[in-house]
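Comment thread on ticket #2218

A.B. wrote:
> Attaching the input chain for the structure job we discussed in standup.
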Amino acid sequence: MIAVDGFAAGDLPADEVAEPDLDGGGASTFSTDVFDLDGDGHYETTVRATDAGITVATDIDGDGVTDKFTAFGRDGQYRTWEIFREANGIGRGEMIEFGEL
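C.D. wrote:
> Ran it. Output below, let me know if you need it in another format.
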């Protein structure tokens, strides 16, 4: 399970899609896919597609919390953050990479 800002991606079914709001109320379409990239039987990577772009969250050390987060915008820009947990449990992100695809 991957948690980002209190959101546990493992709680969502894969390929969940929200219905677009045809009345113009602002609801967006999104999908979420969860992957076990290293084959250890635990989902460590979540890919979410939204109207704004795609995000990828990965739990690198297997503790159930996101360690690396990358956002890809529809304009081709991307940013990657490494997430650190302080001794008091508060998380902070440090941008480690950015650019254009």
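A.B. wrote:
> Thanks. Noting for the ticket: The CA atoms of residues 59 and 81 lie 12 Å apart.
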